[in-house]
Amino acid sequence: MDPSGTLSDGLDGDNVYLVAARGETRIGFVSLTPPWVGRYSLDKYLTREELPVLTDEAPFEIRVLTVEPHWRSTAAAAPLLMYAALRWVAARGGRSVVAMGRTVRSGAVSFEVLSGSVPELTRTVAERHGRILERLRTRLDWRLDPPFAPQADGCEHGGAFFSAIGTDFRTLTRRHEVVAADVLDAWFPPSPEARAILAEDPGWAARTSPPTGAEGLLAEIAGVRGLPVESLLVGAGSSELIFRAFGRWLTPRSRVLLLDPGYGEYAHVTEQVIGCRVGRLRRHPRPHRLTPRRSDGAAGAGVSRGADAVMRDGQDDGQHLPTPL
Question: For 35, which of 58, 153, 166, 188 could close a Cys bridge (C-beta 3.0–4.6 Å)?
Answer without folding.
Answer: 58
